[in-house]
Amino acid sequence: MSRRFRGFYPVVVDVETGGFNANTDALLEIAAVSLKFDEQGYLHLANRWHYHVEPFEGANIEQASIEFTGIDPFHPLRGAVSEKHALNEIFKGLKAEQKEAECQRCVLVGHNPGFDMGFVSAASERIKAKRNPFHPFTTFDTASLAGLALGQTVLAKACQTAGISFDNNQAHSALYDTEKTAELFCFIVNRWKKLGGWPLGD
Hints:
By secondary structure, this protein is an alpha/beta fold. Helices cover 38% and strands 22% of the residues. The chain contains 6 helices and 5 strands. The protein has helices at residues 63-69, 83-100, 113-126, 142-150, 155-162, 174-194, and strands at 8-17, 27-37, 43-52, 105-110, 134-141. The protein has a 5-stranded mixed beta sheet, sandwiched between helices. A hairpin with a 5-residue loop joins strand 2 (27-37) and strand 3. Helix 4 (142-150) crosses helix 5, helix 4 (142-150) packs across helix 6 (174-194) and helix 5 (155-162) crosses helix 6. The longest helix is centred in the last third of the chain and has 21 residues, at 174-194.
């Protein structure tokens, strides 16, 4: 992993939120999926973390956002945890895997990842995390990669083009979107390998 991605450990992340402003709007759900290579050098999904998150004190929640995601932030059966608990558990797991893979930093993989990165970074600052494992500005964008590899930039259409099943009724669940983004990223990396692009020829 370290050699393939220049010391980065790729982790696929998706968030569901109460709006578009990472500094003022609530983080409501977060999922992360780590990846691993098999013995043949093909990339696959590894471990998963998924949390429903309690809105931080004073968080803004836009009605249009929760209507879009279908999330009821205050539903008693939601099983939500604090931002601190969710991020600390994810960060702890990722740091252990990153170290085992002999990588220097995690790199966030996402579909248009600037949005997800913004909310993860803002929440990390709010909880005063000792060390956010993600590189502060480098990301891998599956929208750009899918545009190159598949001629599609919308997640559902890119997955369908790649032969990956996609259920629109399950979309906008952080875990489902993260898993599908991870499958898409693995497809593109593995396709590149099959075409002779990795390892690079002499």
